[in-house]
Amino acid sequence: MPGILGKKIGMTQIFGEDGDRIPVTVLEAGPCLVLAVKVTGKDGYNAIQVGYDDTKEKRVKKPQREYLKANKLKPKKFVREIRCAEPPEVKTGDEITNRIFQKGDFLDVTGRSKGKGFQGGMKRHGWSGGKQSHGSMSHRVPGSIGASSYPSRVFKGQSMAGHMGSGRTTVQNVEIMDVNTDNSTIAVRGAVPGANGTYLVIRYAKKKSVAPRKEDDGKKGEDGGKEGSEE
């Protein structure tokens, strides 16, 4: 299973076996409902469409509402597609829970970052700023943004003041420190994007291998390493 949808609960801390304090973020991971299954032969790619968090039927657009009725599925507030490397083994109507994860797995977590509003260049882009000495009149100003006679324009991508945050952000390779199947939560090391309550897409890390599952009996790949994630 390539991943799951969830929600950010908040940050706390745990203590390791050596007594070190570890900051963690608690995420509600599922349960999610499989709304559709995409396969290469029919759709051109492998993916599962999953929904998370129940909502009222009237809040769903009519085309989606009719599709859900035809397949006897409950309407969901947060719906996303998650690509798979291989054809999915689940079918429409199945439920995915946080049991797909184990302590020690690595994840890529995608969400919408906190909005910061209109910010200056020093905060938005990390400019060092001008001289702080007496008499300087350019402590935090942007300075020149281009030449006048040629090219007589501002190049695209010029770092300037503007709207900051509130964008799609992914943090990679966050480690699972704890899995609680009773309340569908997982605790991951460090911070993840967004404020508390932000919806998240939680996938297996692309740049890390996945710990062997009980069902695969710890099998290793042909190169001698652990088998990678499905995505």
The count of helical stretches stands at 3
What is the general shape? globular
Total DSSP E strands: 12
Report the order of strands and helices: EEEHEHEEEEHEEEE
Helix content: under 10%
Give the radius of gyration. Answer: 23 Å
Biggest sheet statistics: 6 strands, antiparallel, barrel
Distance between the termini: 9 Å
Could you explain how this protein is built, in words?
It is a single chain. The chain is mostly beta strands. It has helices at 40-43, 62-70, 121-125, and strands at 3-15, 21-29, 32-38, 47-54, 76-83, 95-96, 106-112, 115-119, 162-165, 168-180, 185-189, 199-204. Among the domains are: 1-30 and 98-114 and 165-212, Elongation Factor Tu (Ef-tu), domain 3, CATH 2.40.30; 31-96, Double Stranded RNA Binding Domain. It contains three helices and twelve strands. The radius of gyration is 23 Å and the shape is globular.
List its salient traits.
single chain; six-stranded antiparallel barrel; globular; four-stranded antiparallel sheet; Elongation Factor Tu (Ef-tu), domain 3; Double Stranded RNA Binding Domain; mainly beta; 231 residues
SSE topology:
Elements: E1 3-15, E2 21-29, E3 32-38, H1 40-43, E4 47-54, H2 62-70, E5 76-83, E6 95-96, E7 106-112, E8 115-119, H3 121-125, E9 162-165, E10 168-180, E11 185-189, E12 199-204
Antiparallel strand pairs: 1-2, 1-12, 2-11, 3-4, 3-6, 4-5, 7-10, 7-12, 8-9, 10-11
